[in-house]
Design a protein that fits this description.
The protein is mostly helical. 73% of the residues lie in helices and 0% in strands.
Length: 233
């Protein structure tokens, strides 16, 4: 029996907690950005205007990953076994992959680059530690699975690719990049593309783990394979 079926109340509360953590982190951080309290620029650089700060905020892969995870969790908080068809599965998997990569990249590459205090430090914990753990553990405990197949995985990776293209094009225009490992101005295109390739491999690896886990958990529960589920649109 699937975990969400055996304990739907626990699944709902888990997803509600995930949404609340992300919503609180997004809300507080956005207020700080608008106020100019945490403008996410290097020391000595002039802070951009409020509108540009907001656009920059929503241009972070971290922020977009949290939003996707929150969207999926909000739906599952209402119905832990929900399946809205292929588009829903893509959004769900994109959120899980994105938030997991966010956590891994932050802990391994970015954690020591910023020194945050007060509310900004609290939201940082929400963005980079709590939401990745809540997303991955919640999926492992409550599913629903199976939901993913190779086509869903490939389509879900279109978002990170689009994000990278947007980031590089916008960076050329406004001379701002959200992360140092894709800062063309500092690294040049050759190094940036090598770093991007590394992140792409990580995305594929994490996606494969979710795809494999989805199948095995579904098999253990004795449920219908994902590629045999009806494709409701």
């Amino acid at each position: 029996m699937r975990a969400w079926r055996s304990n739907p109340a626990a699944a709902r509360w888990w997803h509600i907690a995930t949404v609340l953590v992300i919503a609180a982190s997004l809300g507080v951080q956005l207020v700080l950005v608008i106020q100019g309290t945490n403008v996410l620029v290097e020391d000595g650089e002039e802070a951009p205007g409020a509108a540009m700060r907001v656009v920059n905020f929503f241009s972070f892969f971290t922020v977009q990953s949290n939003i996707l995870l929150a969207a999926g969790s909000a739906v599952l908080a209402k119905d832990p076994g929900f399946d809205g068809g292929r588009l829903w599965r893509v959004v769900r998997l994109a959120g899980l992959i994105g938030i997991s990569v966010t956590g891994v990249v932050y802990v391994t590459l970015l954690r020591g680059l910023v020194d945050l205090e007060g509310a900004a430090a609290v939201t940082n914990v929400g963005f980079h530690y709590l939401s990745p753990l809540l997303g991955a553990i919640g999926w492992a405990l409550f599913g629903p699975w199976p939901r993913f197949d190779r086509r869903v995985l490939l389509v879900s990776l279109a978002w990170p690719v689009a994000w990278l293209a947007y980031t590089l094009v916008r960076g050329e225009i406004v001379d701002w990049y959200p992360y140092p490992f894709i800062d063309v101005g500092e690294l040049g295109y050759a190094r940036t593309l090598v770093n991007s390739a590394g992140v792409t491999v990580l995305l594929l690896g994490v996606g494969w783990l979710f795809l494999t886990g989805d199948r095995r958990l579904g098999d253990r529960a004795g449920t219908q394979p994902a590629d045999e589920l009806p494709d409701r649109r």
